[in-house]
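Narrative of accomplishments. A recurring question from our advisory board has been how the design workflow behaves on a single, concrete structure rather than in aggregate. To address it, we present the structure tokens for one chain from the evaluation set, followed by the sequence designed for it. No filtering or post-editing was applied between the two.
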């Protein structure tokens, strides 16, 4: 972290979907680029916990300077209970299949391409899964490179997934509605020996939250509230 206060910047570029066979589509172009050797604390609950741990004023979110990650890690090491946080996002169907899902102060519009009945005013949910996976990988590479003392200049992650739309539309009950497979291409740029980056990759795959989400079952509780 330069000056102990660097901002985390990651960008994702989502490309169009393309058909690859009968009922099968391949989501392409979800590319994540870590633009600087930085990272950022992203959720309000966690930021508030860290602000409280250091006795800072405010909620830790509206501050213009990011929290130095070594401070965050040490605070959670001293008080493990502060590591338990809950995140919440509310999604509203706006029109057609277009949805609005604001996250903290960030506006997010989710839609489908015209070929799937949408107006293409935003990325689709499954494209966002790939973007989430790619960005989470990039961030995790940066965090663990710093912890392992591995020099890392740039990270690019390309995420590509195959999905069979017959599952979503109920045309074949034997077809799962989600991705059947996901492929990651991780490009690392830096002065280290390739073996060091392979070591880093193994650590990242053990600690990347979104990779854990897509590789392992997560209990989901659903409650339906119907109103007239």
């Amino acid at each position: 972290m330069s000056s102990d206060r660097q901002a985390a910047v990651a960008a994702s570029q989502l490309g169009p979907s393309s058909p690859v066979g009968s009922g099968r589509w391949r989501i392409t172009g979800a590319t994540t680029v870590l633009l600087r050797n930085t990272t950022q604390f992203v959720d309000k609950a966690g930021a508030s916990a860290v602000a409280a741990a250091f006795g800072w004023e405010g909620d830790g979110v509206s501050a213009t300077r990011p929290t130095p990650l070594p401070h965050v890690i040490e605070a959670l090491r001293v008080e493990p209970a502060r590591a338990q946080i809950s995140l919440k996002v509310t999604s509203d169907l706006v029109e057609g299949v277009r949805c609005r899902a604001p996250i903290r102060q960030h506006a997010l519009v989710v839609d489908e391409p015209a070929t799937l009945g949408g107006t293409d005013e935003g990325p689709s949910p499954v494209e966002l899964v790939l973007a989430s996976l790619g960005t989470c990988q990039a961030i995790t590479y940066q965090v663990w490179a710093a912890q392992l003392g591995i020099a890392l200049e740039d990270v690019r992650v390309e995420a590509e997934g195959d999905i069979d739309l017959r599952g979503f539309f109920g045309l074949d009950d034997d077809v799962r509605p989600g991705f059947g497979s996901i492929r990651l291409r991780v490009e690392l740029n830096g002065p280290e020996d390739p073996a060091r980056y392979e070591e880093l990759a193994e650590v990242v795959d053990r600690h990347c939250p979104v990779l854990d989400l897509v590789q392992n079952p997560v209990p989901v509780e659903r409650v339906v509230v119907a109103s007239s």
